[in-house]
Amino acid sequence: MEITCPKCKQVQDVDMKVATCPNCRTVLRRCLDCANYDVRLSFCGATNHPIDVGEASYPTYSSPSTYCREYKPRAAAS
Questions:
Q1: CB 64 within 8 A of CB 71
Q2: Residue 14: how many CB atoms within 10 A of its CB?
Q3: Where are the domains of the chain?
Q4: CA distance linking residue 64 with residue 9, whole number of Å
Q5: E strand or H helix at 49, and its extent?
Q6: Which residue in 16, 52, 65, 75 has a CA-CA distance of 20 to 30 Å to 4?
Q7: CB 59 within 8 A of CB 53
Q8: How far separated are the first and last CA of the chain, in Å rounded?
Q9: Tens of pLDDT along the chain (78 residues)?
Q10: Helices (H), 1-78
């Protein structure tokens, strides 16, 4: 799967074991960028759990999105 780094904007080809960008060490999977995340409700449709807005925008290593198996990039990387 290809994910665009939210900080350095480089496209990274990642698998489920990769959590951070190799260039800037930013967490790659953000709820805010996931197709399963409803921004209006701050809710994950895949896990049926509310996600704090701050956590969705700026995930940490312990955030639910960091290693989420249901993560789907909202837009295709170009």
A1: no
A2: 18
A3: 2-57
A4: 22
A5: strand 49-50
A6: 52
A7: no
A8: 12
A9: 888 898 999 998 888 888 899 999 999 999 999 999 999 999 999 999 999 999 999 999 998 889 889 999 886 544
A10: 53-57
